[in-house]
UniProtKB/TrEMBL annotation:
CDD domains in alphabetical order: AdoMet_MTases
Protein name: S-adenosyl-L-methionine-dependent methyltransferase
Gene3D superfamilies: Vaccinia Virus protein VP39 (3.40.50.150)
Molecular functions per Gene Ontology: S-adenosylmethionine-dependent methyltransferase activity
InterPro entries membership: Methyltransf_16 (IPR019410), SAM-dependent_MTases_sf (IPR029063)
Amino acid sequence: MSLTTLCLPPSSSLPPIRTLLVAPTAVITSALHNLQTLYCPLRLPTTFAKARVAELAQVDSGYASRDEDEDAVDAEDALVTLRADEFERAYAVRWLTSLIGRAEELELEDEDDRERIVGDAAFILSSFSDSTAEDADESLTRDFSFPTPKNGTIDIQLNDAPLSGTDHTDVGLQSWGASIIFSELMCKEPARFGLNAFPEDATIIELGAGTGLVSLTLGKLLPTLADSKVEILATDYHPTVLENLQTNIATNFPRFAEPPVKTSMLDWSLPPPALESSAHMLFAADVVYAPEHAVWLRDCAAHLLLLNGIFWLIVTVRKVGKFEGIPDTAEAAFLVEEQLPQKDGKKLKIVEKMELEKKRGIGRGDEYGYMLFKIMWV
Ligand SMILES: C[S@@+](CC[C@H](N)C(=O)[O-])C[C@H]1O[C@@H](n2cnc3c(N)ncnc32)[C@H](O)[C@@H]1O
């Protein structure tokens, strides 16, 4: 495999459908993986792109004459150009549509493979009609209305800012399915998440807040549940994302001299000493999308979380292409007992795990569903 394998145009790399009818499953799977790599809307941070390039360079000839950073940037640039090519997109859509249409004719040994192939093709296909793919250049106002148990609603308005196109780390300018699904659930069943039982002056911290949907929802929901004053700190490491988040706070709390949601810069790999053991509750939605994220988040949570605190982590399950296996790293980070963070004789562990289904019309095409983890000191 070479670096250029990542960037081959669909029109010259996808096998004709008629040859696939008798092809081994691996050939079809590989073609689908390549399409997913190309058209998956969630862009990876440069660190992961670099790791990927290094991995490919090792498999290659060993003529690693170019700097890895340059290779990573070149590979990403080539992908961006190819992704925008209308002819190639139309070709990929036709290929996926005929693959699904002729799925019954594929000579496969295992029926599960047929189901998986159709599912993967349909997910990639649906990403072509997602807002990120086509509307990434335009700012979008999104309105959410989440029903509460008392027949009310929590209404949030968000500005989803355009992605820069040059910065591969500004994914937090747009709202992701995980935060929508989770915000809806919190409003529906607040007691299930302990949202009605905060002590006075409690602190909530959201990690990788992006547009801030989870924090803003909490900021409006909590006062409807109890009188206690809770401070909500929506954090992210990206300056432009934080700026957009501040706009969203102002939009949702226009008459507040002191809005209940504040922002702060926080990098999971280097959480500030001043916030040590400060959080009664932590939230993080769709934040595990590179191999190093899960361990950073685990250790960051250990630093921030009070001994009786709860960390709600919602991981987006993406099964194909470059994200394959990455959602599993969340659970894996808590598997080896000796590696678990410790505090006052307790260890930080996953105490509950829930599968949440993807909902029609919510989230990108490559999202299969969500895993919600309840993490505590035990
Ligand atoms: C896919 S977005 C999810 C945003 C939001 N939670 C949502 O669900 O819409 C991932 C977020 O994590 C942030 N992020 C990525 N790496 C980070 C790090 N090392 N420290 C803090 N935030 C980070 C990004 O800036 C982005 O806002």
